[in-house]
Design brief:
This protein is an all-alpha fold and 469 residues long. The protein has two domains: 27-106, no CATH class; 110-467, no CATH class. It contains 17 helices and no strands. The radius of gyration is 25 Å and the shape is globular. The N and C termini lie far apart (81 Å).
């Protein structure tokens, strides 16, 4: 029997080549620009992208989170037509399922952070079925919240090494700096300003970044990571990155004139300063001066809403008081489930003591959770936040006592600063069902697993040890 390989004839080779060419050229005619121009490139790099996705699942997960939370494709409209969040979502879930169920390269674990989170997620999901406006609640759950739920667990399971943690931190810093640069540019050019002075991004597109308070929320999250880099022991390049990005982000938050943004800046700076400044009296004095300087720089007293020209309690503050009162009434009238996910605005008219012809947002994380999930959801949510703060303190103390990698200590400081900023900013910003708190929970759970499994030894210290200089 001949061992010679049978090669296809010339006609067969031409047929294969022609078919491949037609498949590659088809997107040029079937897809609208600019997708049609990019499709051949996408086809060419697809095999490499698939291999990298399975070898580096966390990178894929991180890409999805960065675009979904920071809305990069809305801050830079040239990327909008690429639909990157939608394009990355399915591969992320597929790779995660492969890693857990088939290859078993990712080892699932459970912790109290994830237990609290899953409890709150279940209560919120049950509340969707009993929401006053079920279509609204279901729309938000299917469009956003279920993705947050899966990605919170994915972060906890996929982030395993100090290198992974630093990749996450730097991705958040770079994305936040990019959004901050756009906000600053808009402010300088007078683009998309509301109330005459408050900066927004892509407001005409209906972007989340089109609200100055939501923009401040997005920007305050990466500030915790950039500020921690400034005082890290990771070399001058990392410190320079932290210094430049912190400056950009603070400048952009100032441009939003958001009270919640101001509180987030002070909270993050307070935690980082407490770790590095020996004289606490000097730190407190500096914080008071910085707060006054930032308040003046923001020009909050000159805002069209909430400005100093308004007598007594200003219009913005009074509006929040009315909204918080409405939230309390929603919770007391529906104590077990609240009015349902994303239902506060729709129900404002029925529960508010003051009606000015418009429904209003609650502008408070705590009252938002209380109104939309009832007392059970509120209790679990607060318990989750408190436990995660304690967990980050314990992890930082253990890493310090075990002389763990400086990257890990920087991350624990970032997470503690981030949780503090979240709690303070949450007084004026509605972020109970958006990305920041859940990203922090996922990372805190991952750090806790690292402390339990990867440190060479662990000496239990008081949770406050991480705050000592």
């Amino acid at each position: 029997m001949s061992s010679a390989r049978v090669m296809p004839g010339r006609a067969g080779q031409l047929a294969v080549a022609g078919t491949a060419s037609l498949l590659a050229a088809a997107p040029l005619f079937l897809l609208p620009p600019p997708l049609s121009a990019l499709a051949p490139l996408a086809i060419a790099i697809a095999p490499v992208a698939v291999v990298l996705a399975f070898r580096m699942p966390f990178a894929l997960c991180l890409t999805f989170i960065v675009f979904s939370f920071f809305r990069i494709h809305e801050a830079f409209p040239a990327l909008y037509s690429l639909r990157i969040p939608s394009l990355v979502a399915a591969p992320t879930l597929a790779v995660l399922a492969w890693q857990i169920l088939l290859s078993r390269e990712t080892k699932p674990f459970w912790s109290r952070e994830l237990a609290y989170f899953s409890g709150f997620f279940v209560l919120t999901t049950i509340g969707v079925a009993f929401a006053v406006n079920r279509p609204t609640a279901l729309t938000y759950w299917t469009a956003t919240y279920w993705k947050i739920g899966i990605m919170t667990v994915a972060i906890a399971w996929l982030v395993r090494t100090p290198k992974d943690f630093m990749w996450a931190a730097k991705s958040f810093i770079i994305a936040g700096s990019a959004v901050a640069a756009v906000a600053i540019s808009n402010k300088l050019q007078g683009i998309g300003l509301v109330e005459g002075t408050r900066v927004t991004i892509s407001r005409e597109m209906g972007s989340v970044l089109g609200d100055p308070n939501d923009l401040a929320l997005v920007l305050s999250f990466p500030l915790a990571f950039s500020a921690s880099l400034i005082v890290s022991r990771l070399g001058w390049l990392n410190r320079l990155l932290g210094l430049v990005s912190s400056g950009l982000i603070i400048w952009a938050i100032v441009c939003t004139q958001s009270r919640g943004g101001l509180l987030a800046i002070l909270g993050v700076a307070g935690v980082v300063g407490w770790r590095t400044v020996k004289s606490k009296a000097l730190l407190i004095s500096a914080a008071l001066v910085a707060g006054l300087v930032l308040f003046a720089a923001m020009g909050i007293n000159k805002r069209a809403s909430g400005g100093g020209h308004e007598e007594g309690i200003d219009e913005s503050a009074m509006g929040r008081i009315y909204a918080w009162g409405a939230a309390w009434k929603m919770a007391t009238s529906r104590p077990l489930t609240g009015v349902g996910l994303d239902n506060f605005v729709d129900n404002y008219f029925f529960y508010s003591d003051h009606w000015d012809g418009m429904n209003h947002a609650v502008h408070s994380t705590w009252f938002n959770v209380l109104a939309e999930t009832g007392f059970p959801g509120f209790i679990v949510f607060v318990s989750m936040v408190v436990y995660c703060i304690r967990s980050s303190l314990r992890s930082g103390a253990s890493i310090a006592s075990a002389r763990g990698p400086p990257e890990m200590y920087t991350i624990t400081l970032s997470l503690l600063a981030g949780m503090t900023g979240f709690c303070l900013a949450g007084t004026f910003l509605t972020q109970g069902f958006t990305w920041p708190i859940y990203i922090l929970i996922g990372l805190i759970a991952a750090v806790g697993r690292y402390v339990r499994d990867d440190l060479p030894f662990e000496e239990r210290l008081a949770p406050s040890a991480i705050l000592r200089p």
